[in-house]
């Protein structure tokens, strides 16, 4: 592919490291083509850490040589490459305490956790939050963020990952191979769901009146359609897809919402501060060379990764 040319508000970044997310395989398989109508050929990749090479004429916040990291906007993905042009609004200076590989593991999962727990749930000190799939990329970050916010954290995970989630700060650990979380937990303020429909529906049962069920794995809801400015027909489809879970949540006096994280450099700077002060640390399962990107995606799809799988380019 030709080298990308940065636009007036864009920064050309030399990619030193990137990381793999389930979103990459979902985009590849066409699961989001209704929402993200990408044109082929398409370069995948949603996380980047690297060095600024050039800046657009209107860029004021970055200069060549800056070490940066980002989750590019959903319309400008493509970090599985040597170079990428990123809007300066989506960028932040890389945390000083992290290597490039560590920094590349953070943006998508960090912003997802932030936008669910801080922005959408407004999680407060003393509240209770259930985080599903606690040993995964989003889960390992969300546990630490929730503890920083002062919440009591319950986590679902497998037997072999209990020590990991406890070390990250989980107060209550449910081994899903032995226990049904919906029969053990009660009166939770927030549930962060990243799993399928069965877990989603069971999650309603652990919420207190006024509680929030927030899912990053769907189904999309009407508010999400409005946020994206989608055509009314797509909005109707999303209303139908989420009708069952919204109705069930409402019958329990709770609410359901869907979050599809967005690029946000301002929030990344907040996350950088938490990392550099030691409140949050990256959790990395493996670092692989660029040539092994396909194998890395297959491994992430298996569900066995603890934290993030990182791709090193330089």
Provide an overview of this structure:
By secondary structure, the chain is of the alpha/beta class. The chain has two domains: 10-106 and 282-312, Medium-chain alcohol dehydrogenases, catalytic domain (Quinone Oxidoreductase, Chain A, domain 1, Alpha-Beta Complex), CATH 3.90.180; 108-258, Rossmann fold. It has helices at 22-28, 100-104, 107-120, 137-148, 162-168, 181-184, 197-203, 222-228, 232-251, 265-276, 293-301; strands at 10-20, 48-55, 67-70, 83-87, 91-93, 128-131, 152-157, 172-175, 188-193, 207-215, 255-258, 284-289, 308-312. The strands form two sheets. Strands 1, 2, 3, 4, 5, 12 and 13 form a seven-stranded mixed beta sheet that branches. Strands 8-7-6-9-10-11 form a six-stranded parallel beta sheet, with helices on both faces. Strand 6, helix 4 and strand 7 form a beta-alpha-beta unit. Helix 8 packs antiparallel against helix 9.
Topology, element by element:
Layout: E1 10-20, H1 22-28, E2 48-55, E3 67-70, E4 83-87, E5 91-93, H2 100-104, H3 107-120, E6 128-131, H4 137-148, E7 152-157, H5 162-168, E8 172-175, H6 181-184, E9 188-193, H7 197-203, E10 207-215, H8 222-228, H9 232-251, E11 255-258, H10 265-276, E12 284-289, H11 293-301, E13 308-312
Parallel strand pairs: 6-7, 6-9, 7-8, 9-10, 10-11, 12-13
Antiparallel strand pairs: 1-2, 1-4, 1-13, 2-3, 3-5
């Amino acid at each position: 592919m030709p080298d990308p040319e940065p636009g007036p508000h864009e920064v050309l970044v030399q990619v030193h490291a990137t990381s793999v997310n389930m979103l990459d395989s979902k985009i590849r398989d066409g699961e989001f083509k209704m929402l993200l109508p990408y044109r082929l050929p398409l370069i995948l990749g949603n996380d980047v850490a690297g060095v600024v090479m050039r800046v657009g004429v209107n860029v004021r916040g970055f200069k060549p040589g800056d070490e940066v990291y980002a989750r590019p906007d959903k319309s400008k993905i493509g970090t599985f490459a040597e170079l990428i042009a990123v809007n300066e609004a989506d960028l932040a200076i890389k945390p000083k305490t992290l290597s490039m590989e560590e920094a590349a593991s953070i943006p998508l999962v960090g912003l997802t956790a932030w936008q669910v727990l801080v922005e959408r749930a407004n999680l407060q000190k003393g509240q209770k939050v259930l985080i599903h799939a606690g040993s995964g990329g989003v889960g390992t970050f969300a546990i630490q963020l929730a503890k920083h916010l002062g919440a009591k954290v319950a986590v679902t995970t497998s037997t072999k990952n209990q020590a990991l989630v406890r070390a990250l700060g989980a107060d209550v650990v449910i081994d899903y191979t032995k226990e049904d979380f919906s029969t053990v937990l009660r009166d939770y303020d927030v549930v962060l769901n990243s799993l399928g429909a069965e877990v989603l529906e069971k999650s309603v049962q652990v919420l207190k009146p006024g509680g929030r069920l927030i899912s990053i794995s769907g189904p999309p809801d009407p508010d999400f359609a409005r946020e994206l400015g989608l055509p009314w027909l797509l909005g109707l489809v999303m209303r139908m897809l989420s009708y069952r879970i919204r109705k069930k949540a409402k019958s329990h006096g709770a609410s359901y919402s869907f979050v599809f994280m967005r690029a946000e450099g301002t929030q990344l700077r907040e996350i950088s501060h938490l990392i550099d002060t030691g409140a949050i640390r990256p959790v990395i399962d493996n670092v692989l060379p660029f040539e092994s990107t396909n194998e890395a995606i297959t491994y992430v799809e298996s569900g066995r990764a603890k934290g993030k799988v990182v791709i090193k380019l330089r």
